[in-house]
Protein: Tyrosine-type recombinase/integrase
Organism: Paracoccus simplex
Amino acid sequence: MIRRRADRHFVKSDGSAPVDAHLRRRDYLTPDEVKRLLAAAKSGRHGTRDHLMLLLMYRHGLRVSELIALRRTDLDLASGQFWVQRLKRGLSTSQPLAGDELRALRRHLARRGDPLPWLFLSERGQPLARQAVNYLLTRIAARAGLGAVHPHMLRHSCGHALAHAGRDLRLIQDYLGHRDPRHTARYTRTAAVRFQDIWR
């Protein structure tokens, strides 16, 4: 049974998630909100690391599990390439690193005085845990005045930004590593660019 709540979202009668993704509340950040989040990340105790983490999550649509699994060997700074190992049977791809990403990576690695293979470490020199990333993002989002932000919102923000830029579904599908195009269609179906010239 489906009922409609006061917030005009379709939900199941047991209060669980909406039946279709396009009926949900906005679950991504706008480019301006991402800028605020990234600026707030720089101001923390580990600003260089935290800014880089959120930048890579957004630009490459990384899941938390993909982020914390990153190793130095996944990077080729000389060629500006980045191997994105997708999980959940996703399509792994080599993706280009933009100039600001390369600069952030070099700053981060220059501060590291250890030979450990993982790209992101905790204060104790261990790979970051999912809970640590969740906690850091919550703190950073609060500093940015954005309210509740969860890590997967950065992956959604990446998909929506690409769709709003007019990129086609197949390209976004491959970039995010989706096996099923239905997972990508949520971004292209709701993109404002589709309706840009609708009154002309």
Notes: Strands lie at 2-4, 10-12, 75-76, 81-84, 93-96. Residues 1-19 have pLDDT under 50 and may be disordered. Residues 47-60 form the longest helix (14 residues).
